[in-house]
Amino acid sequence: MHDTILVLDFGGQYKELIARCVREMNVYSVIKPCETALSQIKALNPKGIIFTGGPNSVYQKDAPSCDAGIFELGVPILGICYGMQYIAHTLGGKVDLGEDSEYGKTTIDIVGASKLFADLSERQQVLMSHTDKVTALPAGFVRTSRSRGCAITSMENAAKKIYAVQFHPEVERTKNGKDILKNFVFSICGAKADYTIEDYIETQIAEIKAQVGDESVVLGLSGGVDSSVCAALIGRAIGRRLTCIFVDHGLMRKDEGDEVEREFKNRDINFVRVNAQERFLKKLAGITDPETKRKTIGAEFVRVFEEEAKKVGAKFLGQGTIYPDIIESGAKNSAVIKSHHNVGGLPKDMGFVGLVEPLKGLFKDEVRKLGKKLDMSEKIVMRQPFPGPGLAVRVIGDITKEKLDILREADAIFCGEVEKLPPPKRPNQYFAVLTGMRSVGVMGDFRTYDYIIALRAVITKDFMTAEYSPLPHKLLSRAASRISNEVDGASRVVYDITGKPPATIEWE
To answer: 179 Cβ partners below 8 Å, 6+ apart?
Structure first.
């Protein structure tokens, strides 16, 4: 239905960024494993193909590869990092281990004319991440840029429409990377910008109706962006034949359960709220290991949902699976980031005849756009990313109601102060953590010995990397003062200034 750019995955961590960059141009993109059969690639009829980076060396045994026939399709190709090395290695060039690695921001000099670098200055800032390098060009290729540490940082065979760059144009730290990708997608591939969210909504409503027919759907509503938008979309298609079951496990932020209920109780769907706070607290009693917390919460959620779903008698299960869930859970050449519980559905013995997953072709930013088109509240659509186990992984150590209540109050104060900033100056994610450590304090003439609260705020566009947000000291001082004075059980406040990497965004 749309002009398509195929992103062929060789194990690179930035594959999703590449595909998202393309979709931001209103051009449809799809990610497939590098070993995808040539017949399947032809069936996609792509306007262009992008080879991703990857952690391997092309000269190693069993290094990721694709069908060599791809170079004979006549479809424009852009290789990135490993993708460039793979093109060079496969087509008769040479790739060697470099004496010096290039990691981080690097300056390259463009040499000669290239459609890929059209309208860009001769000197560009890019992000490099490699040790191997192309040391000899394949026949028919020319060098188009170089850096101080690498003689060939890009190459091309314009006659065969094969282009390659050693750096990563898809990341923010490559200053004009989006322009480079646009040159490839539009000038070289000739793709049309014919993909919109409005088209997606109409297509999915028709597909839901065709799949479900006159039957009903049950959906586990977490209150997160994905499940909430999924509920709104399925509800738009089948109305009250959708039942949303909101399992309130007591691990949500202050007033969040009530916000979810307000959002959905007046929509043309059946909404069921299950208050299971005590049940989850009993299961979590004494557990301190974060992975055990996650598994315990996930298993108990399934049991609660299973009990409620049987009361509904629906034939189909709705899930807010999004495209990255599928990609991350099924990656072959890269490390599995995490296995997503919603890929593959809940236990088969629950008796559903099929899954309804209308968001499985979308990235997170597209899901938010879709939610706005479905008239959902800004509060829900722009909700910060929130871990599935909720505050259980923001309370370090064992979980108690007292600790959760302390954290809820501290988090609400901090978030409220941050949200006084104008939107352009707000960090992308911000929250409080109850560290599990206690510290001596003074209240009036009395000694206290209460919990240390850590505040975390990060700036990121992709949530794969992040920098801490340099929030104004006045804001931090005000938040710290309010938390230590207004929240019983909190005596000291600290601010986390660690980036990702080396840290993760969440503490557990």
So the answer is: 119, 120
The position carrying tokens 């706005």 is 372
Distance CA 177, CA 158 (A): 20
Instruction: In whole angstroms, give the CA distance from residue 124 to residue 106.
Output: 8
Residue 370: count of CB within 10 angstroms of its CB: 24
CA distances from 179 to 4, 171, 183, 245, 266 (A): 18, 12, 6, 44, 45
Phi-psi region of 387 (alpha: psi -120 to 50; beta: other; left: phi over 0): beta
**Spatial separation of the C-alpha atoms in residues 274 and 361, rounded to whole Å:** 30
500 exposed, middle or buried (CB, 10 Å; 0-12, 13-18, 19+)?
A: middle
The residues annotated as belonging to the active site are 81, 168, 170
User: Residue 299 has which token pair?
Assistant: 């298993």
Crossing angle of helices 364-373 and 197-212, rounded to 10°: 80
Furthest C-alpha separation in the chain = 82
3-state secondary structure 213-251: CCCCEEEECCCCHHHHHHHHHHHHHHHHHEEEEEEECCC
Distance, CA of 46 to CA of 49 (rounded, Å): 7
pLDDT in tens, 14-40: 888 899 899 999 999 999 999 999 999
- Residue 329's pLDDT is what? 55
d(C-alpha 463, C-alpha 71), whole Å:
34
| Residue spans of alpha helices (H) in 313-448 | 323-330, 364-373, 378-381, 401-418
C-alpha–C-alpha distance, residues 88 and 72, integer Å = 15
**Which residues of the chain fall short of a pLDDT of 50?**
331, 334-345
Tell me how far apart the alpha carbons of residues 414 and 401 are, in angstroms, rounded to a whole number: 20
Q: What angle do CA 502, 11, 67 make, to 5 degrees?
A: 170
User: Tokens standing for 60?
Assistant: 């190693």
Report whether 432 contacts 314 (CB < 8 A).
no
- pTM for this one? 0.71
Domains, the chain: 4-188 (3.40.50.880), 197-381 (3.40.50.620), 394-496 (3.30.300.10)
User: How far apart, in Å, are the Cα atoms of 101 and each of 54, 68, 131, 153?
Assistant: 15, 29, 4, 13
Q: Measured at the alpha carbon of residue 230, what is the angle toward residues 459 and 344, in degrees to the nearest 5?
A: 95
CA 442/CA 337 separation, integer angstroms: 44
Eight-class DSSP state of 61: T
279, two tokens: 């049940």
Q: How far is CA 247 from its chain centroid?
A: 24
